[in-house]
Amino acid sequence: MEKTLGSDRHKSLIRFLIAKREAAGFTQSEFAMRIGEYQSFVARLESGQRRIDLVEFETFAEILDFDPREYFVKFD
User: Fold this and answer.
1) 67, burial (CB in 10 Å: exposed 0-12, middle 13-18, buried 19+)
2) How far apart are CA 49 and CA 27, in angstroms?
3) Hey, what domains does the chain have and what are their CATH numbers?
């Protein structure tokens, strides 16, 4: 199994989440405040330095108001 950090699928997930954050009108700082983290947490996540686990992904979907299944449909 390949490493996930830096993989094409990881980069795709990051691009997806950045687009959703921007579409929701949040800066990194505003999004960080909503999830109870520092802006640097979001910056590390969006720069690909940090993995995103499933529970975090579900929380992000709730805050950014999207269906988490939306990302996975393209992989069916």
Assistant:
1) exposed
2) 19
3) 12-71 (1.10.260.40)
Mean pLDDT of 49-72: 95
Q: What pLDDT, in 10s, does the model give residues 5-43?
A: 889 999 999 999 999 999 999 999 999 999 999 999 999
pLDDT band at 75 (very low <50, low <70, confident <90, very high): low
The pTM of the full predicted model, rounded to 2 decimals, is 0.90
What CA–CA distance (Å, rounded) separates 73 from 69? 6
Distances (CA, A) of 44 to 28, 37, 40, 51, 71: 11, 12, 6, 9, 20
3-state secondary structure 8-36: HHHHHHHHHHHHHHHHCCCCHHHHHHHHC
